[in-house]
Amino acid sequence: MCGIFGYVGKRNDAGSLVIDGLKNLEYRGYDSWGIACKTDSKVSIEKDIGKISSIKSEDFSSNCSLAIGHTRWATHGGVTPQNAHPHANGTETIAVVHNGILENYQQLRRDLESKGHEFKSETDTEIIPHMIEEYMKETGDFTSAIKKSCEAFEGRFAFLALHTESNTLVAARRGSPLIIGVGEDGYFIASDIPAFMNHSRLVQYLDDGEMVVTDGESILFSSLKTDEEIQKREIEITWSVEEAQKGEYEHFMLKEIMDQKDSIARAVNQNEEQIETLADAIRNAKGTFLVGCGTAAKACMASEYFFSVISQKHVNFAPASEFKLYHHFLRPESLLIVVSQSGETADVLEAMQIAKSKGSKVLAIVNVEGSTIDREADYSLLINAGPERAVASTKALTGHMAVLMLIAYALDGKLKEGRKVLLETASEINDMLNPRYVDFVESVAERIQDQKDLFIIGKSWNYPMALESAIKIQEVSYVHAEGFAGGELKHGPIALIEEGTPCIALMGDDEVKNDIISNAIELKARGGFIIGIAPENNESFDVWIKVPEAGTAQALVNIIPVQALAYFLAVKRGKDPDMPRNLAKSVTVK
Ligand code: F6R
Description:
Elements: E1 3-9, H1 14-23, E2 32-39, E3 42-49, E4 66-72, E5 87-88, E6 94-102, H2 105-114, H3 127-139, H4 142-152, E7 155-163, E8 169-174, E9 178-182, E10 186-190, E11 202-206, E12 210-214, E13 219-223, E14 229-230, E15 235-236, H5 252-258, H6 260-268, H7 272-284, E16 288-292, H8 294-311, E17 316-319, E18 335-340, H9 346-357, E19 361-366, H10 372-376, E20 379-382, H11 395-411, H12 415-432, H13 435-448, E21 453-458, H14 462-477, E22 480-485, E23 502-506, H15 513-525, E24 529-534, E25 543-546, H16 554-572
Parallel strand pairs: 16-17, 16-18, 18-19, 19-20, 21-22, 21-23, 23-24, 24-25
Antiparallel strand pairs: 1-4, 1-10, 2-3, 2-4, 5-6, 6-7, 7-8, 8-12, 9-10, 9-11, 11-15, 12-13, 13-14
Helix pairs in contact: 2-3, 3-4, 6-11, 6-12, 7-11, 8-11, 8-14, 11-12, 13-16, 14-16
The chain binds fructose -6-phosphate.
């Protein structure tokens, strides 16, 4: 989703610094960019549609020590230079960049227009500088006018604002994330840490309903409602700059697929006492619910099978966006487990609010430490996958599944056995992801790259992996892909199979193996080209992608070659797998 980055401090190259920082937020997905630099008592704004990667940061190095920038992912208004941020008031004394959606912007815009304000864009954001200008007439003060404006806004927002008459950078937040980087020469404020990682490794988090004002030397956090000053801890970032870079790989997606050689073992390396405590929380809960979105939702869905098979415990999965009407089931004794890579997904945050309003406890399993979900949950476990920057989630999925499986084993009093199974699987994955294996998966992608449709089948925990396979293939290669429970084929989808249609069958060496082989044979009989992802070959397969036999952890193993297949399909079809169209890394709007 949109990226925000601003700087104020002693450096006089704030413009180029902000452009470089925005380039580090490209992975979030965007369609236009822009920057506002304050020089002397003027604000100069430059913005355009398209990619920022080709923009030379040196062109923005003129004497400036306060700048804000933005990468926009269009919501209100099309992709045009006028709609790109920053937006300014009529006299161009106030500039604003914004994430989120102001739900009552149409009414506010009409009110402002009736007072003579003129607008140049179709965005909700443009009302912010106009509102601030309007309230400054009352308060005479920039920051108080921002607070008053926030009172009038409905919906979720995070914005940065600057004013020609002041050397301060102001940020306000209700819903969308903002993080402050504490540097030696000033302060950075961004929607995500990679924007300023090269300059600062100490962060402070702005929470919902808060505002921060800094002139680069001092910083003041306060409540948007009460003016009360708020003290903040400084937290050190644990991951390295290298971890957040592509290194030898052409794309983040491939790097992150390969990272699974060690990221699963890191996820398993949890504090045992904490896992036992969480298993107890599930044991004692009157109803446990699991929610997440997209790929994280598939980790939740796979976990229903983990809890059923490993610990014979019933947990209830729902996509976070569908959780609203489940509140009837929630009680103070219920437990909600939320799963998220970014820890900022709006639908997941809403599910948490619903659970909290019923007095239920929330357990979060997240990747990004310090994210809103991490901080707002009653208990939180980190999967320690390291930064995931490709829009398509890969290593976070296997990290989430590993932690959930560990809890399922702990619930059955077998935490040590669970650790052993998962660490052995991690080591098998390390061996599997060798260059020859990856080349083989690439050759399979080459064989099917021109196909229009692709189907994936699985059963038990391989069923959510079939759904996840479809997401991966759709989002990066734009091939029409659909996942099914193998047993559902004959109830409809088999009608879609034609001569040569590629069909992936995910299987393990388990009690449902024969069922899924039968499904693969049914597909083959209708002309399907069968790609079997399994520990053993089978005569129904036209191509066999071998995976290690992993027992209860088979889902973690089987999904990895599909991630690689999706990656190579994208590259061979000339698409950028790191920045798929219409998608954003962190979905902070509903
Ligand atoms: C797909 C993908 C998305 C995310 C979803 C949830 O590859 O990345 O489906 O899984 O938007 O995001 P998080 O995990 O950050 O809550």
